[in-house]
Amino acid sequence: MSTHVYKSPLCSRYSSKEMQELFSEDTKFKTWRKLWIALAETEKELGLPITDEQINELKANKDNINYEDAIAQEKKVRHDVMSHVFAYGLQCPSAKGIIHLGATSCYVGDNTDIIIMTEAMKLIHKKLISVIASLSDFADKYKDLPTLGFTHFQPAQLTTVGKRATLWIQELIMDLEDLEHQISKAKLLGSKGTTGTQASFLELFDGDTEKVKKADMMIAKKMGFDAVFPVSGQTYSRKLDFQVLSILSSIAQSAYKFANDIRLLQHLKEIEEPFEKNQIGSSAMAYKRNPMRTERICSLARYVIADAINPAVTAATQWFERTLDDSANRRISIPEAFLAVDAILSIYLNVSGGLVVYDKVITSRIMSELPFMATENIMMQAVKKGGDRQELHERIRVHSMAAAKVVKEEGKANDLLERIADDELFNLDKDELSTLLNPKDYIGMAPEQTVDFLKNCVKPILDKYKNEIGFKAEINV
């Protein structure tokens, strides 16, 4: 292991091998060669004097990248594409003259970027499905478990643990829909030439516009795409990069929401992320169980959300048919967004599949707040026994304020029920009051909503992609 040069922690600590391979040098340059082969085959099929021998020579060397030759040449010419054309030509002497024929650098650069991003989105899709499946199991298991709901992180009405999980799932489904739409409309740049006019190809095909048009689609088909951008400058519209990274940012936002909720719940000791037998929570405080994984989700998500501004600025600042101030930025911002979201979803899957629920703590917190929430029911029961609604309302307000003061200022238990039981105006004893404090009477339609959501919204997705469920999350740290 080399320790004297910088290495991205996205690779060494966080992202999966699958995603790293997609954005590797090998994948990039092998795809360049596939595109050069597709170009040569298309040009031959449309009548240019290219031989089977030349194409076979290209195919025989498509995966054998001679990096040293390319690196040495780039030091001389300062051009990465022409350096690899030169290196490929060294391996394919008979085909040397027809490599990259009529094309500009963006033919291999931009088309490869689209191909890799599309495959990367498909990998993200698989992980999203598995996270949704994991959370679905959790929501179903805890659909009936009452828990204290919070608005403004202040105690509000009750919900259930499972119903809360449906909120996390729903946001992931929204992301999934956007991701699927983006994948469904994927298209290549095609073969457009230096300013998008296809002038060089028109020259090659002796002014035959139909052959120029056919070449565009034939290359796309060979590379597995059904469409190309109908018009372009030298590059595809950088708006595409913004659209893709916006979806990655949205996934990061959803993951952040889930992770932040778990961090808060872990503070409340209600729900915890997985904690392994030999895991250390703090270097100083041996008793601590810090929410390290959900904190990591939030940390990486924040990076992706910020990173998504890069393609927005790039798209806005492109000059006419192209400028090159996008290149260095895109080499960093696009791969890192994918690597980070890949890592986020791996951690998300790990955490969601191992959440620890402390139902007794959850119930204890409910019971400390439920007397306040039950005051309307208590008042109605007292009215049924002959009480005056207006008098009871004022009396219960006074008792509630007094009980809240005891809790907040004296640190004692909520004694509202005792106060009401001792007040003759209510005509209710402790046994009668206790029957009004069943948490399940205060969760509304939460269980039914959870069941309906899982059945009508989640199950169809999981059935459709059942072969993608079960993605195994591996986290390094």
Q: Which structural class matches the secondary elements?
A: mainly alpha
Radius of gyration in whole Å, from Cα?
31 Å
The percentage of residues in β strands lies in under 5%
Terminal CA distance reads 17 Å
Shape descriptor: elongated
Salient structural properties:
two-stranded antiparallel ribbon; 63% helix; elongated; mainly alpha; 477 residues; single chain; 4 strands
Write the layout of secondary structure elements.
Layout: H1 9-14, H2 17-22, H3 25-45, H4 52-60, H5 67-77, H6 80-91, H7 105-141, E1 146-151, E2 154-160, H8 161-184, H9 199-204, H10 209-222, H11 239-267, E3 271-272, H12 292-307, H13 309-316, H14 327-352, E4 356-357, H15 359-373, H16 375-384, H17 389-410, H18 416-421, H19 430-434, H20 446-464
Antiparallel strand pairs: 1-2, 3-4
Helix pairs in contact: 3-7, 3-10, 5-6, 7-8, 7-14, 7-20, 8-11, 8-20, 11-12, 11-13, 11-14, 12-14, 16-17
Question: In short, what is this structure?
Answer:
The protein is 63% helix and 4% strand.
Fold and architecture overview:
- It contains 20 helices and 4 strands.
- With 477 residues, the chain is mainly α.
- α3 runs antiparallel to α10, α8 runs antiparallel to α11 and α8 packs parallel to α20.
- The longest helix has 37 residues.
